Amino acid sequence: MPVLPPWPVSARSGSETKRPFSLPTTPDPTMAAAIGYAQAHLRDGTIAGASNAARVSERTLRRRFAATVGMGWESYQRRARLPAAAQMLTDSDRPLGLIAADVGFESQSAFARAFRLMTGVTPRQFRCQTRI
User: Fold this and answer.
1) Which of 40, 54, 103, 121 could form a disulfide with 34 if both were Cys (CB 3.0 to 4.6 A apart)?
2) What is the rounded CA–CA span in Å between residue 54 and residue 123?
3) In 10 A of CB 35, how many CB atoms?
């Protein structure tokens, strides 16, 4: 997937306002396995699947993931869906609801909320901006 440049963002504090589509990484091979699982299973990833991939218990994964990656598993999983969604918004005319489902959001409104929180614009606005 191509690297996307930072897009207009909200006034929130933190690194996500500078690069909304960047994801944290870790040199820890166990947590890197969980990250790989999350990125390969955007739509259907679970904490159980990630802990299997990392070969640790769910409790250990939650604790170590937060300590090494700097965010919880669920937050990472939600955030990992957004670059794929942004690419689909840029490259296709698919309806927003289908894109939301393709990357694992339970509803179009949950997708729009997460997308706007990360980028400062709605998915529809993003699509219009990237098609200029």
Assistant:
1) 54
2) 33
3) 24
- Two tokens, residue 18: 């500078």
Could you tell me if 102 and 43 are in contact, meaning their C-beta atoms sit under 8 angstroms apart? yes
Cβ contact 1:87 at 8 Å: yes
User: How far is residue 68 CA from its own chain's centroid?
Assistant: 17
Q: Tens digit of pLDDT for each residue in 84-101?
A: 999 999 999 999 999 999
**Tens-digit pLDDT profile for residues 42-77:** 989 999 999 999 999 999 999 999 999 999 999 999
Cα–Cα distance measured from residue 23 to residue 69, given in angstroms and rounded to the nearest whole number: 9
Task: Give, as one character, the DSSP assignment of residue 16.
Answer: G
